[in-house]
Amino acid sequence: MRIQATLPSGSSTPTITDIYSHIDYDADSQEERIQGSVFDPLTRVITNYTEYKDFKNSKSYMVTSAGCTVSQMNELMIPPCVAANFTIDRQYSLGPGVTVTAWEGSYLGSLWMNIHFIDFNCAPLSVHVYGQSPDGSYLLYSYQFGDVQLGHLSDPAPFDLPNSCKQGVQTVG
């Protein structure tokens, strides 16, 4: 689950969004697939989407009922464990034998990230990103993870793009 709040540059009205998703993540191939539902609290409309992120080529492929849109990405893949520039924020326990370490550090220059991992397997519990983004807007993303299955993908080829993204796509950015 992700709660997202964005304050566009020059605006005093934030945009708040609830996003529920299933994420396939492969650090070796530098790819992610996010299948999600976005709930807009103002309109009470739920929109389903699938996003393919190709971090090697800095491309995002967003698939909705309207088709596929390709855009350039200006983000870094969150490392599979702790980023080299992060420092320990705190440690705590979730019951007997489960230690969690919170790490924090800069992300994309002007943003700050705080991430909590279970120590024995580096499974993420939560990620918080906040600050001013490169486009001048202010943002706060808060991710909460459940049912993390390390080393397991949801299907044999989750990063294969659908045909709508391979031909005749609309490019943005």
Task: Please explain how this structure is put together.
With 173 residues, the chain is mostly beta strands. It has a domain of 121 residues. Helices cover 2% and strands 54% of the residues. A 12-stranded mixed sheet has the order 7-8-9-10-11-1-2-3-4-5-6-12, with no helix packed on it. It is globular and about 50 Å long. The model has no long low-confidence stretch (mean pLDDT 88).
Short characterization:
The protein is mainly β.
What is the topology?
Blueprint: E1 2-7, E2 15-26, E3 31-40, E4 45-54, E5 59-64, E6 67-72, E7 87-93, E8 99-107, E9 111-118, E10 124-132, E11 138-144, H1 163-166, E12 170-172
Parallel strand pairs: 6-12
Antiparallel strand pairs: 1-2, 1-11, 2-3, 3-4, 4-5, 5-6, 7-8, 8-9, 9-10, 10-11
